[in-house]
Design brief:
Length: about 55
């Protein structure tokens, strides 16, 4: 089952699977809603972008 979750998480991180589909497929694998929500939060976490400007004062 772990490989199935790893595969789903990889699909989610690459953008080929949206949050709703991720939760649906995780529940089909027998994962509880709370655990799937936690995993989805990690899989769909936004990566900070480099660059920008900080103004102080």
């Amino acid at each position: 089952m772990t490989t199935g979750l790893d595969h789903l998480a990889a699909l989610a991180r690459s953008g080929r699977l949206d949050r709703r589909a991720f939760l649906g497929r995780a529940s089909a694998l027998g994962i509880t809603t709370a655990m799937a929500g936690t995993l989805a939060g990690r899989a769909f976490a936004q990566v900070p972008s480099r660059g920008g400007l900080i103004r102080a004062g």
